[in-house]
Amino acid sequence: MAAMPDRLILAEPRGFCAGVEMAIKALTWMVRIFEPPIYCYHQIVHNEWVVAAFERVGVVFVDDISQVPEGAPVMLSAHGSAPQVVEEASRRAAVVIDAVCPLVTKVHHEVRRLAERGYDIVYVGHRGHDEAVGTVAEAPHAITLVEPETGLGDFQPKDPDKVALVAQTTLGMYEWEEVLRSAKEAFPGLWTARKSDLCYATTNRQSAVAKLAELCDLILVVGSDNSSNTQALVRVARERGVEAHRIDSAAEIQPRWLEEASVVGLTAGASAPDHLVAEVIERVAPRFGFEVLSVTSEGEYFPLPPQLRGFVTVLQAVVEAGLTARPPTEPGWLDRDREWTAAKALEMIGT
């Protein structure tokens, strides 16, 4: 008989953050407005299930903007793109919609401003990650990427009094804090953002996992391998001495993981759909059911990219002109955007 844990504790918050919600809804609008194929530079979010859902309805994901045919509509992913990519996309594509998360945009602005002021910038991030590549490209002459595992290494600034430290938004809190501590010791005049570069959703999900680690024998984290924030959740659990595994879906759960586990913790990275979490609960089948552990609530909302809002407004006007005018008191499509979730958007495209 298969092992069956006694309880399952579900972390809250988990799953889609505001940036992912916005990006998925934006790409869904692209699918509804334009004839396929629609191109997206890099995966819209780092989740295999979400990417496959969009591929089924005609979205083509590319890793080089030169793969976008002349005149095709293109979306730029939530992780942020290098200035050269944005410029090239504008030359090639008929329509360019940038779905970059506003929190990543904040870091891009910081990097440009600091470079203009003559700072040597230390960027703490994972080499090769889409977000890190795009951010470093904002000021490659002034920025040094350091991995959180190795820290400052042999970094030597031109002027020790003009050093700045910025971060990839999806880092683990403990990873960032360790580099921050050593940088402050090395450079007492270190510049850092007044508000942490780490994404609120990343931080909240890690806090929830830290609480789970106090109560659970095993923690399962739903999310894809290339999702930095998902991997950070696994590391947070393991740092606290709890066995933890990343899974893309319930099908990847190994029976041996459950054999010695009385209480299983469950969470999901910021780009993982919640229906995958529900399937994990069904697969684990805790003997005494599951409960929710909530550490905070999230009410953040990011509106659709401005270029896309213009298209939606025009589309609504055309539809209303061809049918019947909307009553003045009835909200329009953009007015209802807060109510319309990414989960509903994915259902709408037939997933």
Describe the structure.
- With 351 residues, the protein is of the alpha/beta class.
- It folds into 3 domains: 7-16 and 200-294, 4-hydroxy-3-methylbut-2-enyl diphosphate reductase, catalytic domain (Cobalt-precorrin-4 Transmethylase, domain 1, 3-Layer(aba) Sandwich), CATH 3.40.1010.20; 18-100 and 319-348, 3-Layer(aba) Sandwich (Rossmann fold), CATH 3.40.50.11270; 103-186, Cobalt-precorrin-4 Transmethylase, domain 1 (3-Layer(aba) Sandwich), CATH 3.40.1010.20.
- The chain contains 12 helices and 12 strands.
- The protein has helices spanning 18-33, 48-56, 83-92, 102-116, 130-136, 173-186, 200-213, 228-239, 255-259, 274-284, 306-322, 342-348; strands spanning 7-12, 38-41, 59-62, 73-76, 95-98, 120-124, 143-146, 163-167, 218-222, 243-247, 263-268, 290-294.
- The strands form 3 sheets. It has a 5-stranded parallel β-sheet with strand order 10-9-11-1-12, with helices on both faces. Strands 3-2-4-5 form a 4-stranded parallel β-sheet, with helices on both faces. Strands 7-6-8 form a 3-stranded parallel β-sheet, with helices on both faces.
- α3 links the parallel β4 and β5.
- α1 packs parallel to α12, α4 packs parallel to α5 and α7 packs parallel to α8.
- The chain is globular.
- The chain starts with 6 loop residues before the first strand and ends with a helix.
- The mean pLDDT is 92.
